[in-house]
Design goal:
Low-confidence stretches of chain A: none
Number of helices of chain B: 7
Largest interface: A-B, 70 and 60 residues
CATH architecture of one domain in chain B: Orthogonal Bundle
CATH topology of one domain in chain B: Helicase, Ruva Protein, domain 3
Order of helices and strands of chain A: HHHHHHHHHHHHHHHHHHEEEEEEEEEEHH
Structural class of chain B: mainly alpha
Distance between the termini of chain B: 60 Å
Largest sheet of chain B: none
Order of helices and strands of chain B: HHHHHHH
Number of strands of chain A: 10
Shape of chain B: elongated
Distance between the termini of chain A: 91 Å
Structural class of chain A: alpha+beta
Oligomer: heterodimer
Radius of gyration of chain A: 28 Å
Low-confidence stretches of chain B: 13-21, 133-140, 155-162
Chain lengths: 684, 162
């Protein structure tokens, strides 16, 4: 056998496909027989069990394929076209591993593997609810088949490179040679793929007319963990863009970024509105469609960015597999639509809204804003295609468009983040509203005044809109933080009165008693901290200069002085770097060394940004290269306020999700002896 | 108090409209942020960090020349549309079908808000019109207390910790 590992990988993928086809066919047959009481040659329960085991075995098979590809990468097997095009001998071990998801075929294999891994956990934990898990497992097998068909026929990762085996590979895209790229794609894919599980449970529950809301409880943790992965994946991508691409920003409204944002928005809407179904049995049909939409948007995002329908800077991921995704999307939509209409009477609400000013209506408006944001992003992403179709001219939908339409929507969302949790369920009184909203309103006004006193006076700028939005964002954020803080302190005060503890331990006890609620508040707090960081971008400044030794760039109170330039080299790349002293006033703060690298295998250059980060601002320096005419180095310096708040906000969101996922303390059950009549008689 | 608020508002509006007059450099920077570099990098013209880019210095020089000639922003943008095509604008601003890009998101948000408000009103009316539930369980759905109990007893969190 000339290529043992590629052959093993290909065989594993075919085996996985066969196992998933069996899992789908046997599972569907067994569930149909059980639901309609039809006899089969084999007892349907046993058939269902074999389907589950085939699904588990598919995970082993896909793992085999993934290991084969990683093995080929580490052993420099350039007979495999994928390894030839995405690695080279001198590549760092971590990047050889990350080559698994650096190209089209490998990233689809990662997707299939994660899907199989999620399926493995679902199938192993089937005792949570055997029948519902069987439905979800069967639906999941259907999704797995699609990805395995892609890997076997449309984008095979083990295809052999034509001609004699090359001595070295073409290398990994330099932009991907950054530590975050080792974890960002898996994290993002964990998010995309993870939404398949709540989708499978929701569709399964609808197909079998599952009684009650237990399926939501089963999928709640899946959904939250998936949402967290997607959030982390998106934010890691932002940080990578900020630290690697060297344009001073973290979000450029590129179609690939938008594609990840779409399911995040609907997933967030689902996490909120599902509470109404749990608490009051409302919005059942809405929730089902939200989770269907979240799954379909994950697929649509992949279709948009890999088919070349819209142009993206992530060109390395484009190919001609768009038709496969379109077909799959249509099939999924038809199945969802048919199941919904067939079973729609099962989704009747148990309660209706009683007041326009209530927690329920705030959830409804929260969903409205999130879906409006989702629609706006999708609309902006697809508008170039529509424009080309309508008048033959392709337009660009860049940051100026998205910032103008999305910022007002974001501000509305901040407002609801603060107002929603202050409203009680069912209905409220004017007195309660006044009591809950006075402090946040004072905080809003006070913050606006303090910001203006501190120099945030957008009406003095040439382009006032950014500054005004930032001012409104700071003020509203202060209101929301006050509302969250006041709500927490109110609860802690009640616990203190009940338990006699101090306020701090009462606060901890309060959180432990209702982890979901206070975890949710912490997530809101984290999101607001992120919003504050995002609003800081309205005050970004930058300057670019050809710098020789001793030259200076002055930006506000900051001064950048060029000390020297140097060069270094290793087997993978040659680097050209600058030594720049950073002064605040007359005090030297730090020395930064922005780099420009030339990767020998791929013959491409890449920047390594140098950042001095504080809570107030980032000094962000890019070595853009040398002027081809003068050979003098070009340095660009950015002064980006509040960027760190974004990353801190992400950590708070992670902490809040962790708390929300933790089981709450249950009330202590006291055993009370109740004397029976016989015991009393005996005692007498 | 209201008069003072109106004064502040009037000052803001005045500042936004009158203080907009700016230097050439600021105008170049402002208009340059509404254009996209045409080298294929997809970046905003003034943010293109592609060293040796054959296109962005040419475009920036053209922009400076147009601004120095004292042309209005729309005229400058039209120059770039004519030379490089509408794709050179960072956002659709040509009027006509481009307006649809701006109107639709806000129209959808507005319509959805009105729709939700009407829906809530309709639900409230229907809720108010319903007869009070009888004590005998003739309704298709169980009583709220029974529903709460069902929900509590099928709560996975509690169930898993018991």
């Amino acid at each position: 056998m000339p290529h043992p590992m590629p052959s093993f990988g290909s065989f594993s993928l075919i085996l996985a496909l066969a196992l998933c086809v069996y899992s789908l066919a046997a599972g569907a047959l067994a569930l149909y027989a059980i639901a309609h009481g039809k006899p089969l040659a084999v007892p349907p329960e046993r058939l269902r069990e074999t389907a589950r085991r085939a699904g588990i075995a598919s995970f082993v098979a896909v793992t085999g394929a993934a290991v084969a590809l990683v093995w080929a990468s580490f052993t420099n097997d350039y007979s495999v076209a994928y390894i030839l095009h995405h690695t080279n001998r001198d590549l760092n071990a971590a990047y050889k591993f990350s080559a698994l998801w650096s190209g089209q075929e490998g990233s689809l294999l990662l997707w299939a593997w994660l899907l199989a891994a999620y399926g493995f956990v679902l199938r192993v934990r089937h005792k949570v609810d055997v029948t519902l898990s069987a439905y979800a497992s069967t639906i999941l097998a259907g999704v797995q088949i699609f990805f395995l068909l892609l890997l076997n026929f449309a984008a095979p990762p083990f295809s052999i490179a034509p001609g004699p085996v090359a001595n070295d590979g073409f290398g990994l895209n330099p932009l991907l040679q950054y530590p975050e790229m080792v974890i960002h794609p898996p994290m993002l894919y964990l998010g995309y793929v993870g939404f398949t599980i709540p989708f499978a449970f929701a569709l399964g529950a609808l197909m079998m007319r599952y009684p009650g809301e237990k399926w939501i409880h089963i999928t709640r943790r899946w959904t939250m963990v998936t949402w967290l992965f997607l959030t982390c994946g998106i934010c890691l991508g932002m940080h990578w863009a900020y630290a690697v691409l060297g344009w001073g920003g973290y979000w450029g409204w590129d179609p690939v970024e938008n594609a990840s944002f779409l399911p995040w928005l609907t997933g967030t809407a689902f996490l909120h509105s599902v509470m109404m179904q749990e608490k009051r049995g409302m919005m059942k049909a809405w929730n089902v469609w939200l989770i269907f939409a979240t799954f379909m948007l994950s697929i649509l995002g992949t279709l948009l960015t890999r088919s070349g329908i819209v142009s993206s800077v992530h060109a390395f991921a484009q190919s001609s597999i768009g038709n496969w995704f379109t077909t799959f999307l249509v099939i999924v939509f038809v199945i969802c639509l048919f199941t919904f209409f067939y079973q729609r009477d099962h989704l009747r609400s148990e309660n209706k809204l009683e007041s326009l000013v209530s927690r329920e209506s705030s959830f409804l408006f929260n969903n409205l804003i999130l879906l409006a944001a989702c629609f706006t992003v999708l609309w902006g992403t697809l508008f170039p295609v529509l424009s080309e179709f309508y008048d033959g001219s392709k337009v660009t939908m860049g940051p100026p468009y998205f910032n103008r339409v999305m910022v007002p929507v974001g501000l509305l969302l901040i407002l609801l983040t603060g107002a929603g949790p202050l409203l009680p369920w069912r209905s409220t009184s004017f007195r309660a509203i006044r009591r809950n909203f006075v402090l946040p309103c004072i905080a809003i006004v006070a913050t606006a005044i303090v910001c203006m006193a501190a120099g945030v006076r957008p009406w003095q700028d040439d382009d006032a809109s950014g500054g005004i939005y930032a001012l409104v964002c700071f003020a509203l954020s202060a209101g929301v933080i006050t509302a969250i803080g006041a709500e927490f302190l109110r609860g802690a005060g009640v616990v203190r009165t009940q338990s006699g503890r101090n306020l701090f331990s009462s606060g901890i006890l309060l959180v432990r008693r209702n982890t979901r609620r206070y975890g949710g508040y912490l997530i809101h707090f984290g999101v607001i901290v992120m919003f504050i960081g995002l609003a800081g971008s309205a005050f970004n400044q930058s300057k670019e200069l050809e710098m020789s030794f001793g030259d200076t760039i002055q930006l506000g109170n900051w001064r950048i002085v060029c000390q020297s330039y140097s060069q270094d080299s290793n087997a993978n790349f040659d680097t050209d770097f600058a030594l720049l002293d950073v002064y605040h006033g007359n005090k030297k703060v730090t020395q930064l060394t922005p780099e420009r690298r030339f990767y020998t295998a791929s013959q491409t250059t890449s920047t390594m940004v140098a950042i001095h980060s504080t809570l107030a601002r980032d000094i962000y320096i890019v070595f853009e290269g040398r002027n081809p005419d003068t050979d003098r180095p070009i340095i660009k310096v950015f002064l980006n306020p509040l960027v760190n708040w974004i990353w801190i906000g992400v950590f708070i969101v992670i902490l809040g999700t962790g708390i929300a996922l933790t089981p709450p303390l249950l009330p202590v059950a006291r055993r009370v002896e109740v004397p029976t009549a016989a015991a009393e008689a005996a005692h007498a | 108090m209201l008069r003072r608020c109106l004064h502040v508002l009037a000052i803001c509006v005045f500042a936004l409209t009158v203080l907009g007059a700016s230097s050439d450099d600021t105008r170049v920077d402002k208009i340059g942020h509404k254009l996209v570099c045409q080298c294929g990098c997809g970046q905003i013209l003034m943010e293109c960090n592609h060293v040796g880019c054959p296109v962005s210095p040419v475009m920036i020089d053209e922009l400076k020349a147009q601004v120095a000639a004292g042309l209005a922003e729309t005229v400058v943008l039209k120059f770039f549309i004519t030379k490089y095509g509408p794709i050179s604008l960072a956002a659709p601003m040509r009027g006509g079908f481009d307006n649809v890009a701006w109107i639709v998101p806000f129209a959808v948000l507005l319509l959805a808000t009105v729709g939700v408000a009407f829906l809530i009103r309709y639900w409230r009316k229907r809720h108010a019109g319903l007869p009070a539930p009888s004590s005998v369980g003739t309704a298709a759905l169980p009583l709220p207390s029974v529903q709460d109990r069902i929900r509590r007893e099928t709560d996975y969190d509690n169930w898993s910790e018991k």
